[in-house]
Structure formats: structure tokens, C-alpha cells
TrEMBL record, chains A, B:
Its EC number is 6.3.5.3. NCBIfam families: phosphoribosylformylglycinamidine synthase subunit PurS (TIGR00302), PRK05974.1 (NF004630). Part of the phosphoribosylformylglycinamidine synthase complex involved in the purines biosynthetic pathway. Catalyzes the ATP-dependent conversion of formylglycinamide ribonucleotide (FGAR) and glutamine to yield formylglycinamidine ribonucleotide (FGAM) and glutamate. The FGAM synthase complex is composed of three subunits. PurQ produces an ammonia molecule by converting glutamine to glutamate. PurL transfers the ammonia molecule to FGAR to form FGAM in an ATP-dependent manner. Part of the FGAM synthase complex composed of 1 PurL, 1 PurQ and 2 PurS subunits. Keywords: ATP-binding, Cytoplasm, Ligase, Nucleotide-binding, Purine biosynthesis. It comes from the Bacteria. This is Phosphoribosylformylglycinamidine synthase subunit PurS. Its main location: cytoplasm. It catalyses: N(2)-formyl-N(1)-(5-phospho-beta-D-ribosyl)glycinamide + L-glutamine + ATP + H2O = 2-formamido-N(1)-(5-O-phospho-beta-D-ribosyl)acetamidine + L-glutamate + ADP + phosphate + H(+). It is found in: Cytoplasm.
């Protein structure tokens, strides 16, 4: 069993209206020091026994289903579970 | 300037229908080895000069605005930017 942590972020050049809205809210309640805020996704997968290569599977899943590679970047970590 | 990375996850006891749906989709296209999948949020904040303690600010923001502590857990990392 492996535990895979995937971090999905919007590319730098892509506007993040959700992040801007949250940053605006924080500013209103007194957190002016927040200069930038961007929101992404964090996925935790548990992967069972498989004969396939774990990196290959994770990359395939990210590119087919889990992320939109046109506007998003991803990185991942694999841990023994 | 500090860069803060915040990871927000649903508590273990809370159902994650979004994660289950994605896991179902992965299974359908041939990734049966995915035993569990949970989806959380990943926030990247840039925090400018402040006289306040960074840990205090981040915890306050998480508990007031960024997370719902009834159903979510969070952890964070602070890096020099």
C-alpha cells in the first residue's frame, strides 16, 4: 500500500478569482499583510498492490482525470503506508 | 515576505462524496488499485512584513475563515520567500 499526496495549483498566468475573494475577506477583517493567496486542490490517494509502476499510474491519472493540464500544474509525493 | 502553505483535509469520520466520485471514475477507466481517495484544499499565501507573530496570524486565519474546524483539519508550513 502506498499513500500518494497530489498538490494541484493553478498556473501562475491564470487568474484565481476564488483566491482573490478570500484574500479580500481576510483584508476586511484585519489581515492586510496577506499579499497574495491562491487556492488549489490537495488529494490523498491510497494505492493498493499493483504490478504497474506507481509513478506511471499517478502521472496518467493526473493527466487524464485529476487535473486540467491547460491551466493547472501538479506535483506529488509517494509514501509507504 | 513569507510563503505559507496550508493543507486542509476533511476529518477521517466525515464522508467525502467528491472523493468517492473521482475514485469511481478512476476505477471505471482501469485504475482499480486506488483503494481510497480524499480531496482537500491547498492554499498558498504570501505574507508581507508584519509585526505580528506569523504562527498566530496563520492559525487565526485558518480558524476564522479558511477552514471549517467542525469537519476539517488543517496543517501548514511557513517558508522564507
Amino acid at each position: 500500500m502506498k499513500k500518494v499526496k497530489i498538490y494541484v495549483t493553478l498556473k501562475e498566468s491564470i487568474l484565481d478569482p476564488q483566491g482573490s475573494a478570500v484574500q479580500g475577506s481576510l483584508k476586511k477583517i484585519g489581515y492586510e499583510e496577506v499579499a497574495d493567496l491562491r487556492i488549489g486542490k490537495y488529494l490523498e490517494l491510497t494505492i493498493g498492490e499493483t504490478t504497474r509502476d506507481i509513478d506511471t499510474i499517478v502521472k496518467e491519472m493526473c493527466e487524464k482525470v485529476l487535473t486540467n493540464t491547460v491551466i493547472e500544474n501538479y506535483r506529488y509525493e509517494v509514501e509507504e503506508a
